[in-house]
Amino acid sequence: MKKKRISIAHVAERAGVSAMTVSRVLRGEPAVKPETRGRVVEIMREMGYVPSAAAQSLRSKNHLTQSGARLFALIFGRGTESSVTFFHDIVRGVERSSSEYGLCPIHVTMQENPHDSWLRLQTILTINSLCGALLVGEFSEKDVNFVRERARNVVIVDGPAPKADQIGSVESGNLDGSLMALDHLIHIGCRRILVLTVDPDHYFARSMTEAAAARRSSDVQIEVLYNCLTSQDAMDLVLAQWKSARRYDGIFTNDDFAVGALKALSELGVSVPGELKIVGFDDILYASFAIPSLSSIRIDKFLLGAESVRTLVSLIESPERASSIKKTIRPSLVVRDSTGGPPFSHPSEPGIRLDASRAASLD
Predict the structure, then answer these.
(1) 250 strand-pairing partners
(2) List of residues 6+ apart from 72 with CB closer than 8 A
């Protein structure tokens, strides 16, 4: 005997609400009270209700809903695992914003082996109901084009975006943040600064290198060391520099590497912030728990993830807008014990900055 199909009307009757309220729950509309949403969802589960994408698309005047596509690929680039806490907060923002739009991300991480990565991309991008893809981290132009040919709407998150139509980007203010960190160290008297960063071709390393070049002067020496990939690497590099009689009064690196640097300095008997001051980047959860607590450049990682989903939705809902949408999450400086100086006010304020040439497309 054929099982009777459960409709919205059946759910509404059991929940004691209108069919329109059930529809609003399905669309993830924030106007529905949390207790009502919870009751409706629980009854859907009890009754075995399965939403009909076709029916929803017929009822909706919204382009996103009309497309019937609710899944999108959330693809992490190679190397993102080296800063797990940073990217975890991005995922939280993606998940929250996705639920508001009734979307569902499918996570996949690129592998070191390019063949394995290609197979993973092929698998996820053959899903017919994909409405787009978020590419988190750094990707080659070849990879971006490969995804774009199959996913239609693409947003680059916290990575460099190629100049192409229909590709949006939401970036961290890496250069502004790097300048902010160095300005703080210089402001509190540091004149021999060590910068620890990743591969020199990485977009974050390029920002740190550019900032170092901008702030280097006859009075301020700034040395940049590359290919630091883990906290252990940072610890080993600092120990090696001291062993070779190199001395510094300031260090700038990301938070994960700063933890390794702090351990090395503790072993060397170098007091922080007495003899040397450190500024990190990312303001991860553990920055405030380090000993001493770590001054850091804060990027609102949750906002970074949430804005990436909003940008994807903008591309989906307005496919006629061929120009790219570019947003930058502004950094801010959090002063803690590792620099020990007075609070430092930098002219940049946290928030979202839109590329001036793109802002009109978001009105």
Answers:
(1) 193, 277
(2) 98, 103, 104, 105, 106, 130, 131, 132, 133, 134, 151, 312
How far, in Å, CA of 35 to CA of 23, rounded?
16
- Sign of the Cα torsion 111, 116, 119, 120 reads negative
In whole angstroms, what is the distance from residue 94 CA to residue 78 CA? Answer: 19
Q: Which amino acid is at 198?
A: V
pLDDT tens string for the chain (363 positions)? 456 778 889 999 999 999 899 888 877 677 888 889 889 888 888 888 877 654 444 444 445 544 447 899 999 887 665 566 778 889 999 999 998 888 999 988 876 666 677 777 778 888 877 889 999 988 888 888 888 888 888 999 988 776 666 688 899 999 999 999 999 999 999 999 999 999 998 889 999 999 999 999 999 999 999 999 899 999 999 999 999 999 999 999 999 999 999 999 999 999 999 999 999 999 988 899 999 999 999 999 999 999 999 999 988 887 655 456 888 999 999 999 999 855 554 555 555 554 433 333 333
**C-alpha torsion 199→200→202→206, nearest 10:** 140
Tokens, residue 186: 């210089």
362 with 312: CB under 8 angstroms?
no
Domains in the chain (CATH in brackets) are 8-51 (1.10.260.40), 71-173+301-330 (3.40.50.2300), 174-298 (3.40.50.2300)
Helix (H) or strand (E) holding 335: none
Query: Can you tell me which residue has the tokens 């099982």?
Result: 3
- What is the reported pTM? 0.76
Are 93 and 305 contacting, i.e. CB atoms less than 8 angstroms apart?
Answer: yes
